[in-house]
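Data deposition worksheet. Section B asks for the primary sequence of the deposited chain exactly as it was used as input, without tags or linkers unless they were present during the calculation. Section C holds the resulting structure in token form. Section D is free text for depositor observations; keep each observation to a single sentence. Incomplete worksheets are returned to the depositor.
Section A, Depositor: J.P.
Section B:
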Amino acid sequence: MRAWTSPDPGTPPARGPAVRVFDSSTRALRDVTPADGPARMYVCGITPYDATHMGHAATYVAFDLLNRAWRSAGHDVRYVQNVTDVDDPLLERADATGQDWVELAERETQLFRTDMEALRVLAPEAYVGAVEAIPLIVPMIEDLQQAGSVYDVDGDLYFSVTRDPAFGEVSGWTREQMLEVFADRGGDPERAGKKDPLDCLVWQHERPGEPAWDSSFGRGRPGWHVECSAIARHHLGAAIDVQGGGSDLVFPHHEMSASEAQVVDPDSRFAQAYVHAGMVGLDGEKMSKSKGNLVLVSKLREAGLDPMVIRLVLLGHHYRSDWEWDEADVSAAGARLEKWRSAVAKGAGAPTAAVVTDVLAALAEDLDAPTALRLIDHWADATDFGDDTEPGAGEVIRRLVDAALGIAV
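Section C:
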């Protein structure tokens, strides 16, 4: 599957420091400097049954900041993202609307690409659909079978979570906490025949009227969690630097994906750090496709809103925070963008050395974009108030906000 067209990531005016992010599994900041080679990041992608909303956009802009912070620190980055282009929500939406599920997935994936391009999110090196990954997923399930961690329930195959001694370390949740949400997040704890209510589906045998593919264990389709495990292991190896996604993926998705990978590769911790973006709400509830309380990137763009204003709204909230979409933030972000562009256009401006250092340091310390924005604000204010002591200051700031923040001024 093709990704979107990536913008030129640019080069900041100075090298940034080593990057630290909050690791959900240890609940502490963690240095994610790669041990050798490129930094390796896997971020869970969309299930394409509806358009990109602000919750999606916030997540992918957050990990775009990490991508850029690594690059600013001098690292190459190998970034992989999936598309769950066959799954129950997609099939259910297609059936409810009378659409072909393949056409629905292709249309919404293309809309997602155009939204990411508009927001200047750096494209992944590998953008992989679940359907095209089936030749990777089947061998991984076979490996799990050989490890004695897969069993059959009426033709469906389940992963035995207790086979991974580290199960539970990603979320840190108790068994009771897991059981409280498992059914609402795609699990089936009440299914008869399972060895453990928390065991997760890795292969669903063919159902009438649903898509299916051949495998050594019969026709069917893969489960959600093993999809990401297989794609990440194939493209990034047994141990990656960052597994990322929204905070609603901590359990079960990231917990299960990690355990499946660790059973196949028992000598490797799946990810050095598990990094999660907060939830975006509207009218007091988390923004989600199932609830329909969505602010869509595409609709804002169609209404003429500059995508850089959208990106500045997102950057104005720390990536780990939960927050509510507010039109007042849009007005403030528009004014901020106008102020930055005016100051940069002056050419000469206030001194930039400390600004560059402090902005890169803020982003390297758990992707603190709100602090970075305020630092650029201070420079723009000083420049607008008449400080023109540094020739070419505008170009320095333009390069900085382009490379580090993804904002085109």
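Section D:
Residues 54-72 form the longest helix (19 residues).
The chain has a mean pLDDT of 96.
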